[in-house]
Amino acid sequence: MSRMAIHRLLLTLPILASAARCPPCGDDGQMACPPTGRAAGESCGGPCDRDGLCAPGLTCAPVDTLKTRVLEFFAPDARSGVCTTREPLAPACVGCPSPAPPDDEGIIDAARWAVATVNAGRNNAHALELVRIASASKQVVAGIKYMLTIEVGESSCANDGRQHEVGACPLLADTQTLLLDVEVVDAPWRTPRYMLLSKALRNAHR
To answer: Are residues 114 and 54 in the same domain?
Structure first.
């Protein structure tokens, strides 16, 4: 940073000291009001927004330079930036559910187990067959919690408690598919490995 730049930066320190309590602006104020309607690519922010306010639909994105770091050190709310159409990135949510690919091997295994478990609790003569995994998300807990929506239908296989391979049991000709919403926790070190937290069968609207 040149001597001139350092000199200019030092001149801003008195402004920074009062940045948290910006005086009124305009005819009755102690300072000129900041320019408004700054276009994309133009400077914005700064102490008391003296660099300007972005036009509607634009965001004042911080610019990472030595000068802005010094300004931010003295007054965190006084950082300068550039008007942009990009929205600021939200911080990652650690431990929150996230979408997962339905063809993931762990999801398929959990879905097959869930369908077999639901079959074990039904008195129907025919077993439900997994048609497809309509949606899936997962969350890291004490293991992995899968939140699945599974399309199922009554098949030609007997409901005898066996867990069939996907596609091994053809659907009955007149069957109406259903959607099975389940939450399953997979903890490989535990016996039994899977735990069914919730289940609900509903009509499929296709």
So the answer is: no
Domain that holds residue 41: 34-64+77-86
SS3 118: helix
Peptide bond into 192 cis (omega under 30): yes
Give pTM, 2 decimals: 0.54
pLDDT at position 48, please?
Answer: 78
Measuring CA to CA, how many Å separate 71 from each of 12, 31, 77?
Answer: 9, 20, 9
Count of the separate structural domains present in the chain: 2
Residues 199 and 103 in one domain: yes
Same domain, 140 and 173: yes
> For the domain that residue 124 is a member of, what is the CATH number?
3.10.450.10
Name residues whose C-beta falls within 8 Å of residue 60's C-beta, 6 or more positions apart in sequence.
44, 45, 53, 54, 81, 82, 83, 84
What digits encode the pLDDT tens for the residues 99-154? 999 989 999 999 999 999 999 888 888 889 999 999 999 999 989 999 999 999 99
Question: How far is 104 from 151, CA to CA, in rounded Å?
Answer: 16
Q: Residue 51 in contact with residue 44, Cβ under 8 Å? A: yes
Asked if residue 16 has pLDDT above 50, the reply is no
Confidence of residue 27 (pLDDT cuts 50, 70, 90): low
- Would residue 143 count as lying in a domain? yes
